[in-house]
């Protein structure tokens, strides 16, 4: 029987508001600003003003079952950069900037359906001013046509929107509260994780702390990998059926699930789950022809091989991507079906759509190009270089950020089908080599969340309070070590929790065998590294 708890929304909001007020009183917030800093007053002060090139409109949003009362400040800079700030009733003296996803094009909402998209609301409940933007253009997050039509919008998306918005946001806070934020943090996942690292690398004094979740930092590289696997799946006989995906996932779980001390459908000891142990080659159909869901044809084996292999283009390690590890959760809803196969039509998959719009609008500036017929990916090296210069956040020497006191937390779901955990681990290792191990240990952390999909979802524990850890690190010099991650169901009930272990550790079960209740408690796991 699993362990279940549920948070009462109204009690949670009251407790958080009380804690935030106490925190602000002792952690550097402006007492004068806080005394008059309720949401209604802030809206009155800011209504209709233009501050630091941002034209503002304000609305008081009343409290609901989920959301506390706040002042919504809508800002517009220039012709097409829109942002939104949410000012709470009890400001804790801090600011939380939440990044966008995909190719952005809209302001992320305050609330969402999964653990990742609810993070801005968590910050607001705790008394943070929250900020988000559309990155300087409007449209679908799967549409990069803005980059072909408007070079200025492409530059805004690449690296300029966050510092541009922050320059205005800080002045807005000063106007409303009489002082700037005592601390400013950035948090984002996927493209938001890329934005996080872009800020660290190009604007090292902009934020006191940064959380880069599943960072798509090597944009040119992973899009090229998306292109490769999309072509594999579109090739004759390449598509993987639901049964074949289950075959692959079952093989991985059978070989690796118990390597962490418990068989629970989650491969936590990913380092020990080697290709040799999994033996994927044994799934090949006799003769290489498709013989149904009990084996993989040669065309289907190529999909798996290219998925797990490292790739680079243009004869340079600059444009590269590490292959994905097989997680054993490929058959979980929203993993391979949504991101890789498109449930039988590759053109419906998220990876296809992203590589397709990138090739049309960055690599060729031609909306009529058929990306599945486009080969090779690096046929236009000048375009690769230009796209990388705008969108890649690959510089590992982040010494200016660290020397300014910055703290950086990486997080990545172990079953992510969109961005490779191995790429994140490689960048983290490059940072350690560039800045030195001692400096990296003092100011950076990497956490992998076993069984978690892209930013959220999957069977693993996908809710982790990295903002609290970052704030304690930056404000109180309390460095994070092992954290706790939670899995909740669709109604908010806690199903289980797990330790969130600092890399290279993983959570190993040390509790009583065969006890489902014990297995649902993080206390019965230890963060270890196999020798």
Automatic annotation (TrEMBL):
UniProtKB keywords: Calcium, Disulfide bond, Hydrolase, Metal-binding, Serine esterase, Signal
Coiled coil: none
One Pfam family cited in the UniProt record for this chain: Tannase
UniProt key word DNA damage: no
Gene Ontology molecular functions: carboxylic ester hydrolase activity; metal ion binding
Signal sequence region: 1-24
Top-rank taxon: Bacteria
UniProt similarity note: Belongs to the tannase family.
Name this polypeptide is given: Tannase/feruloyl esterase family alpha/beta hydrolase
Organism: Diaphorobacter ruginosibacter
